Amino acid sequence: MDGEEPERRRGVATPQPLRRVLRFFRVRGAVVGAFGDSISTAPSYADPLAQLLGVGYGEQAIGGYKTSDLLAYLKPSMTSRYTDSVLLCGINDVIQSVSAATIEANLTLLLAQLNNPVVVCLLPFGNYAGWTSGKEAVRVAVNDWIRANVAHYVDAETVMGTAGALKPAYDLGDGLHPNDAGNSALAQAIFEQGFNSTPLAEG
C-alpha cells in the first residue's frame, strides 16, 4: 500500500504521485472501498459511511481523476481488497467536456472491476465556476443512464442539491465539493439508498 501521495487539491487537478494511506481495518469481515476523484478523498463521505455501516474502509480516489484515469489506475490487487465498493466518478469528465456516451462506457468498465458496487449519481455543480448549460446536460444524461442501467445506485441530488447546485449548507465553497456537513449527508444517503438494498458481503 505504500507509494507516493498526490497533492490534495480541490476541483480539476493534475494527478500527482501518490502514497496511498488507507484506513484499512476489518469489522465483521467487510471492507468498503471508496472509488473516484477528489470528492472521495479524505476528508470525504467514506469515514462517516464506514461508521454508519460499522465496517472498515479504504479510498482509491485521486483529485482531478476522470473515469478514464481511474480505469487506467485500478488494478485487481486494489479492487480485491474490498468486499463492497462505492463509485462516485465522472464530474471531472463533465467539466472537461467528455461526452456522456464516453463517461457511461467508462463507468460500465469500472463496474465490471468492482465488488458489489454502489454507484452515486453525479452531484449538482451549478455554482461551480466552470458550469455551463451544455455541461449540465451531460451530467443529467449520465445520471439518467445510471438510474436506468445500474442495479444499485444512490440518487443523492435531492439530498445534496437545490436548483441544480449544491445546497449552501453542504457546499465547501467552490460549488463542487461537499463540506463536512455535506459529506455526512452524502454518507447517510449512501447508507440508506445503497446499503439498505445491498447487504454487505462477508469477507
How is this structure best summarized?
The protein has 203 residues and is α/β, with parallel strands linked by helices. It has eight helices and seven strands.
Task: Give a description of the structure.
- This protein is of the alpha/beta class and 203 residues long.
- The protein has a single domain, classed as SGNH hydrolase (Rossmann fold, 3-Layer(aba) Sandwich), CATH 3.40.50.
- The protein is built from 8 helices and 7 strands; from the N terminus they run E-H-E-H-H-E-H-H-E-H-E-H-E-E-H.
- The chain has helices at residues 46-53, 67-73, 76-79, 91-95, 100-113, 133-149, 157-160, 180-195, and strands at residues 31-36, 56-61, 84-88, 117-120, 153-154, 161-162, 165-166.
- The strands form 2 sheets. It has a 5-stranded parallel β-sheet with strand order 2-1-3-4-5, covered by helices on one side.
- Strand 4, helix 6 and strand 5 (153-154) form a beta-alpha-beta unit.
- The radius of gyration is 15 Å and the shape is globular.
- 42% of the residues are buried.
